[in-house]
Structure prediction request, 571 residues.
Amino acid sequence: MKIDLNTVKKIAHLARLEFDEEGAEKMKKDMTQILDWEEQLNEIDTEGVEPITTMSSEENVLREDVVGEHLTHEKALLNAPQRDSDYFRVPKVLE
Amino acid sequence: MEKFLSFDDIRKSLENRETDCKAIVNYYLNNIQTKAHLNAFVEVYKDSALEQAAKVDEKRASGKAGKLAGMVIGIKDVLVYKDHEANASSKILKGFISQFTASAVQRLIDEDAIIIGRLNCDEFGMGSSNENSVHGKVLNAADESRVPGGSSGGSAVAVQANLCTVSLGTDTGGSVRQPAAFTGLVGIKPTYSRVSRWGLIAYASSFDTIGVFSRNVKDNALVLETMAGSDNYDSTVSKKPVPNYSELLHFDKRAKVAYLKETLESSALQQEIKENTIAVLEKLKQEGHEVEEVNFPLMKYGLPTYYILTTAEASSNLSRFDGVKFGYRSPNAHNLESMYKKTRSEGFGEEVKRRIMLGTFVLSASYYDAYFTKAQKVRRLIKEFTENLLTKYDYIIMPTTPSTAFKFGEHSNDPVAMYLEDLFTVQASVSGVPAISLPNGRDKKGLPIGIQVVANSFKEAELYAFANYLMGLNVN
Prediction:
């Protein structure tokens, strides 16, 4: 799969990442190389094979709906890069 | 002189009143200081470890100590411990202090193990050389110009250099077994879902396991049996009962062993590793076990399958690092979207960004079926093949790694060359089955070689017993 700079830009936006020109060029090259290598899987016939979606053998894990211990406001905010009374503070959403 | 090289040593010294937990912790603290240049520890919990030691000594005096009293454990920097920092070796988690303790770690503490510090690793467990760490590289104590393996490189070196009794690592595609092989240790990746993942900072949730590094099989078994089992905080964890592996180490069966033609004939395999693996297989035959060659044509597809699925899961798991609730936030943002982008771009290292990008790509609408669904189908084929093989044979034996420890920077410019490090370890990860790496001699340069034994899901007791038997044969 040949990745172009436009695709790098689009995927970077979806992943909330950004790259400078040099970084984008390197990412383009690496992604192309790795995806080409991953495409080996097309050599395998998987007609009629169900994709596997869970690796755990546990099913329907249920429990009683009981009140448990929860973090206090103070503790929940302890790691916040920026806070304002009882809230996480973030920059303006719209300019 | 080196002391406390096994938990049996420690137990004996405690029983004979030659030492106490405080002295044991001080012994390791001193070793950590002497070997600080290896960079295995990110942070040493001197105060809380000595505090724990004093408590355990008190409990011992009143005869109430747990079964791990005297065991000193280091934990990989992706496992959280209440009121202690955890970074997953990433700038993005700088300053993060955990509000709770990982279930696996808590169970060890409940049995009076002492946590002495957190250990260096590749960022979020992504790497095979421990070179991708915000804390810097870790040196292999067998040859300091070489990598210890990864991603749990610090956990391996901590036990290799006798800085703690055992250590915890995590294994997603080989991150315990490969460094165990590079440092001459015993390292297990248990069955997927055998140990609760609560408190393990997620990389790829359908692959991640918590594993153990030790110098011998018995210590390893003892730690795993203590951590394993059901947990209300992880709905995927198995509720199957956990046998006391460490008491089931006696092995007197005639084993049926398979080895895979594709592993021994791999062009990537170092000659000495091949010879030492064959020597073990030959010895097993001489001892009356059944040893047969099996073809595994899908082997080369294990790695691409692994990379498609793990990058997809990583891109999703790592979306939580956004600079809002914890960790690093970029000071250069002017609005919310630029805060996300700048925080993540400045906070994640190169390999992590590469995997997030690839994961986002294979999950994107136009490519989902061609890559992600295809890999899920191949995963089923590999898993079914492996499980079927393990109903016909008790164990699969293969080298743990294609080569012994390589030099720093040797694979840094080629991501795919680095990925090939996990050539022999991913099969067990893709299939979810348990696998253990055992020391199997040294190459001509004196570097440790590992041999891997794989068993069927939840057969850890059988795996440990056979591993213990193999170690006793002392082939290489």
